[in-house]
Structure formats: structure tokens, C-alpha cells
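Schema walk-through. Below, the input block comes first and the output block second. Nothing else is stored per chain. Lengths vary across the set, and this one has 183 residues.
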Amino acid sequence: MIDFGKYLNTLSTARLERDLGTVTEVKGLLIKGFIPEVSLGSVCEVFPIHGKEGALCEVVGFEGPQALMMPLTPLQGVGHGSLIVLKETSAKLGLSDELLGRVLDGLGRPMDRKGNVISEVERSIYADTVNPLDRPPIDEVMGLGVRSIDAFATLGRGQRVGIMAGSGVGKSVLLGMMAKNAN
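--- output ---
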């Protein structure tokens, strides 16, 4: 028997109307257009004038009543008067166990030719910040197997550290040594 409960829940939260707008200006990779009820982080699709596949864009600012958008996909064919459709009020990523071991592009779409991923849950890509004082203290030493670091700059398990140096001085070699010898 089919469980229609989850489908009914999805339908009750689905937006059946679409917010439409138009492009008023394109400067390089910045698209300016009027579309009602968008906010920072909203994801829109901008359709080319000659009806090809739309370009995904994210709202990054406002200039008066017009939204400023940056493309997430190529903009070929987009120009003055192109149609803008609001897709999401915030950028989201579909999550499920099917993602394990898959290769994804920057938008979370599969690249490995193993078919689409059916997501069980959608989450915003913007996470809430964590107060660093709420984290547990780092009290366990982590030996890296690099004697100079272990002696003079001892690190703890779970500690974050930045390794900064000019090009060609051995950052990757150092990271390799630490990964190989850490306990």
C-alpha cells in the first residue's frame, strides 16, 4: 500500500505560484533585474532571450528596487528583458545516503554518470554559527610525528591550525608528513 502522507505533506508546503521578473541590465557577470519578494541568498533561474536552458543565479545585493544576481551556471543568451523565475528563497542541498561515494559538482549535482540522487531531506547551505566558547576544550595532545612541531607548537586533537607560507617551501610535504606520522 502506498503511503500518501509524505506526498500530502510535500504538497501542502509547495509553492504553486511562481514569482516572475525581468532582467534590466547585464554587466559582465552581474545581472540586474526586478523580481518581487526576493531576499539575499535567494536562488533564481534566468532564461535566455532565445529560449534555451536557464542559468541559475543567486541574489547577492540590491540597488533600489532591483536585485543584483551572480550566476552559478553559464549565462549564454541572457540579456535585457530575459525572464527571471524565483526557484528557492535560500540555496539548499538535497541530502540522503545515496550521496555517499558519489562525485558531485559545486551545485550538488552528480557528475559520475550513475544517475540522479533522490534526496530525503533538503537543508540550507548556510549553517548557523557556533559560539567557540560552547565547544569542548581541547585537552588531548595529538602527536604529529614531526619533532619540531610536537616540541615547540604542540597541537591538540580537534584543534584547527593554519599553515601559511610562500610557494615552493614545502607546505604539502609537511602536511604529508603529518598525515603519515600522526597518532
